[in-house]
Write a structure and sequence with these properties.
Nucleoside Triphosphate Pyrophosphohydrolase, Endonuclease III, domain 1, 367 residues, alpha+beta, single chain, 2 domains, elongated, 3-stranded antiparallel sheet
Length: 367
Amino acid sequence: MNKNITQHELLKNFKVDGFCNDLINWFIQEQRDLPWRKDQDPYKVWVSEIMLQQTKVDTVIPYFNSFIEQFPNIESLANANEDRVLKAWEGLGYYSRARNLQSAVREVHERYEGIVPNNVEEISSLKGVGPYTTGAILSIAYGVPEPAVDGNVMRVLSRVLLIREDIAKPKTRKLFEAVIRDLISKDNPSFFNQGLMELGAIVCTPTSPSCMLCPVQEHCRAFQEGVQRELPVKTKKKATKQVSLVAGIFLDENNNYLIRKRPSEGLLANLWEFPNFSKVEELGTPKQQLQSFMKTEYGLEVEMHEYLCDIRHVFSHLVWDINVYVGKFKGQSINRNDVVVVSEEELKEFAFPVSHQNMWKKYKKEE
């Protein structure tokens, strides 16, 4: 394909109106019953779109319902304590999304009197609101014909329009945005964008597209040429970084647990966790290193118990392999703001990364 191809060339001889009508009529009939579709509240659309980034719909539904129950509107989320918001987000991952969402909601509360902006310039200036989220909120909640290009949408249109550009490249996303500006229904941009997303999620899937069930099959150039499984073109990600960690669940004589808060910047910022560190093979066994770490880091003489388990947690860019142990410490005072000793009941109030939640589940199972 010519690298300088335009959206106008891609849409030459393409039946735009027929495609739009077939897509929207299918969406009206076949759309899934999802909680954020019950109304067009821009706040709920916003929350759902942030949660759905890199997370499956079935996983998001209970989180969305619980989150909206706790923070039903802009004002409630704007005024909430961050730790409470992170606790509500616990298990969804990508916690910067939650912090950015609350930061942006506070700006909407203060600057726009609690009303989510209905134009590109204002809404795209909010923290964590990129081009996709901008388009999704504006089209779904306000009926503005603005493109919302995510992976599902690029996959569908790569096949429908036989686009062989690498979707991992930013310039390709720009091409798709330009294509959608020409394609999008001006009468019903909400159902058009949602229809593309839905089609990618349940019919035009990554590895086994259900072409016989596709409502826009007659418009699909890849299907006509039999190359739908070859698209979209996407370069592979770099290999993920492997990190070996050692962690400990330590309790005192009163069965209180030592936990620490992660730094306010970086990966899993402001979440709580059990003590852990990066393992160094030449410095002894993981158990010995953990005992030494607790002494140097917290000034605690710990009594090490047995190995508990190994936990593997995969991020988008790295993998944690964690050796987990259990131990005891005496109730010495620890003069640090990022460390607390809490009861099992109090532990439930703190937000933990998934890996540390899994450590706790294993510990309770073995108790």
